[in-house]
Design brief:
There is one protein chain. The chain has a five-stranded antiparallel sheet, with helices on one face. The longest helix has 13 residues, at 8-20. The chain has helices at 3-6, 8-20, 24-27, 93-102, and strands spanning 37-38, 49-50, 63-68, 74-80, 83-90. The model has no long low-confidence stretch (mean pLDDT 96). The two termini are 14 Å apart. With 104 residues, the protein is of the alpha+beta class. The protein has one domain (3-102). It binds zinc ion. Zinc ion binds at residues 39, 41, 43, 46, 48. The site of zinc ion has 5 residues, from loops.
């Protein structure tokens, strides 16, 4: 499931936020990102999703987090070896509703 197809406006938003941070490399990944699953934590403010399969344990070496500044909400990217693997999205009901629809 391509991010640009399931959440087109959020994909565009992410790309803009990354460009604003000056991270052209990550911005260039957005158009190819796939949503493999949504976060199953059950928090009603959580709209996070995985763009690579969830690891067994932690992400390990080569992992970094990148906090973006959307308005509204919160977005934190997990990046492993330069690839976006998880997009933590909080306090975004618009996105949560779409995710729950496509990944019940
Ligand atoms: Zn969650």
């Amino acid at each position: 499931m391509l991010l640009t197809e399931s959440l087109p406006s959020f994909a565009a938003e992410l790309e803009q936020l990354l460009k604003k941070e000056g991270d052209a490399e990550l911005a260039a990944q957005i158009s190819g990102l796939k949503i493999v699953d949504r976060c199953r934590c059950g928090d009603d403010f959580c709209a996070s999703f995985y763009t690579e399969r969830k690891p067994q344990g932690s992400y390990g070496a080569g992992h970094r987090c990148m906090e973006l500044e959307p308005d509204p909400g919160m977005v934190i990217l997990d990046v492993v070896e330069g690839r976006i693997v998880h997009v933590e999205v909080l306090y975004r009901h618009d996105i949560r509703e779409r995710l729950l629809e496509s990944l019940p």
